[in-house]
Amino acid sequence: MQPDISVRNLSKVYAGGFQALKNINLDIQRGEIFALLGPNGAGKTTLISIICGIVNLSSGTVLASGHDIVRDYRAARSAIGLVPQELNTDAFETVWDAVSFSRGLFGKPANPAHIEKVLKDLSLWDKRNSRIMSLSGGMKRRVMIAKALSHEPRILFLDEPTAGVDVELRRDMWEMVRGLRANGVTIILTTHYIEEAEEMADRIGVIRQGEIILVEGKDQLMAKLGKKELRLLLQQPLESLPGELAAEPIELSEDGFELVYTFDSQQQQAGVARLLRQLGEMGIEYRDLQTRESSLEEIFVGLVHE
Ligand SMILES: Nc1ncnc2c1ncn2[C@@H]1O[C@H](COP(=O)(O)OP(=O)(O)OP(=O)(O)O)[C@@H](O)[C@H]1O
Hints:
33% of the residues lie in helices and 28% in strands.
């Protein structure tokens, strides 16, 4: 199957000579939720802006829904909806007018039934006659999404969709994005909330200093790079780590009451069983045991600081 977005050997050098993207290659499949993660200044917005035709590329090619974004700009652009970071809409307009007008910008004929569906899907129908300035921050954000969906794009870019919104609205937005995906929309989001990528994404791309350093299914990424930790609370404190355990990835807490064993998620239980048996043989007793998995955040921090 042809990917919805195909980026080949893409580079971007800004006018001042700064190279913001270095030879990016990336395919995004139809109907997936792809999260692009990277520290500030890594090139996320530059990449999105090039695909959406807002910034010119320096070299390479990008196809959106099979259309070359330079040679076939109009067709490529009309396949894409973009929800930018900042709210950019006329505050005096009504919700209905703002969303209908956006559709017109793409040269699409009026389709009130589609606009109605979008507004209903985003729980904006009751507000259709309200002026945008009278809406809450969360509602305004929904209007931005409605505008981006007004021309029936099959690809939706969300640049930091939940920056600065409260936890409840963030969860609502996640539900909404999943609903869009269920309707066949391909979704690419950038986020600083790693929890968001962990919750939503099918695949994750990590960008650092203009280079894509990793693209992986979320579950595979967590399994491959994640670590597990086993903490044992001891009945009696140990003065030092026994020599028999010195070769293991194990540490003793300062007060001597806790042993912390760290292992790869993939290595799984074999090591734990062996360790517990070994402790039994050494007469070390524990009164409690806890395990913890590393979060995507820890994996991410490890990746970008390598
Ligand atoms: N118009 C421009 N001219 C020159 N340099 C630019 C321009 N726009 C962006 N840059 C530089 O390109 C790099 C990438 O910026 P970009 O906005 O793509 O990063 P980002 O990953 O989206 O960051 P953030 O997470 O902070 O939004 C930065 O170093 C930035 O200073």
